[in-house]
Design goal:
mainly alpha; 0% strand; elongated; single chain
């Protein structure tokens, strides 16, 4: 019984030590990248989809939630007409 407890404690210590090293490496890399990013001025990301544009307008306050939902609804309706879902026939 004592052997099983010692084995469990040893394995737990190995897992914690491995995880600790991985977390520490990740945080060091993140600090280096953030210092590099701070030196550069990031460009404004351009939305690639209509949904992205709508979400950006919603977050910027250009449209309200009701207008956003209505626009997304119209977008879904248009998509359903252009690309209808085809269900294979049952045999």
């Amino acid at each position: 019984m004592i052997f099983m407890v010692l084995l469990t404690i040893t394995l737990a210590a190995i897992v914690v030590a491995t995880a600790w090293a991985a977390v520490k490496d990740t945080s060091d890399e993140a600090l280096e990248e953030s210092s590099k990013d701070a030196a550069r001025i990031p460009a404004q990301a351009v939305p690639e989809t209509l949904e992205g544009v709508l979400a950006g307008q919603l977050l910027a306050g250009e449209i309200n939630a009701v207008q956003y939902r209505r626009a997304v609804q119209r977008l879904a309706e248009r998509d359903a007409v252009r690309h209808p879902l085809l269900v294979p026939p049952e045999e």
